[in-house]
Amino acid sequence: SRRAGGLDTYLRAVVRDNALGPGTVALQLAPPGYDASIRDTFAPLAAGGCVVLVERSRLLRAESFADTVAEYGVDTLLSTTPSFLGFLAQSPRAVRRLRSLRLVCSSGESLRPFLAAGGRALVGGRLVNQYGPSECTMTSTRYDVPAAPDTSADIVGTAIDGTVVRLLDPRGREVPDGRTGEVHIGGAGVARGYGGQPGLTADRFPPDPYGPPGTRL
């Protein structure tokens, strides 16, 4: 279960970090019932922008996707995946529309294969790699992919506002820069726990040893 305050903090961060505003026209890509549909729908509206909703079948064919972007003047995709971007890359018409977009946010999978195949050149505007596990409110970190990206590793960037990311060793100690550790995420977006499973919740949501009293990771 999640807290409403975490969602409010998250949507405000999406609006600010992605420079959404009254001129934003975002295409609702995520299926209803999937948490990313909340980002697709409410972040643009919170910024005073527009959300375009069309039949799902129009989004599953590259050519009709391209036609939808052109017809409605879409300039923003907040919830796409590397696989979908790779699918669009096979269609010259869809590639032309990708190059016309101001912002493309990708998440859910490793972006590295798409970038290694030269995919960054297909996105004309900003390309943002988003990362966050299911136990957090959609996104915990974000990375603005440069025009000439490093494809030697998956880069997930830095924590968004209201989120804390710690790299800890097996004893719960922070690891020095350049060393390997396990990602632990805290902040407003962390869920309350697993419904009806207090034991699993206690195991997977430990106290934050470096945070204020009562905070968890």
UniProtKB/TrEMBL annotation:
<dbReference type="GO" id="GO:0005737">
    <property type="term" value="C:cytoplasm"/>
</dbReference>
<protein>
    <submittedName>
        <fullName>NRPS</fullName>
    </submittedName>
</protein>
<dbReference type="Pfam" id="PF00501">
    <property type="entry name" value="AMP-binding"/>
</dbReference>
<feature type="compositionally biased region" description="Gly residues">
    <location>
        <begin position="184"/>
        <end position="198"/>
    </location>
</feature>
<dbReference type="GO" id="GO:0043041">
    <property type="term" value="P:amino acid activation for nonribosomal peptide biosynthetic process"/>
</dbReference>
<dbReference type="InterPro" id="IPR000873">
    <property type="entry name" value="AMP-dep_synth/lig_dom"/>
</dbReference>
<feature type="region of interest" description="Disordered">
    <location>
        <begin position="173"/>
        <end position="217"/>
    </location>
</feature>
<dbReference type="GO" id="GO:0031177">
    <property type="term" value="F:phosphopantetheine binding"/>
</dbReference>
<dbReference type="GO" id="GO:0044550">
    <property type="term" value="P:secondary metabolite biosynthetic process"/>
</dbReference>
<feature type="compositionally biased region" description="Pro residues">
    <location>
        <begin position="207"/>
        <end position="217"/>
    </location>
</feature>
<feature type="compositionally biased region" description="Basic and acidic residues">
    <location>
        <begin position="173"/>
        <end position="182"/>
    </location>
</feature>
<dbReference type="InterPro" id="IPR042099">
    <property type="entry name" value="ANL_N_sf"/>
</dbReference>
<feature type="domain" description="AMP-dependent synthetase/ligase">
    <location>
        <begin position="18"/>
        <end position="194"/>
    </location>
</feature>
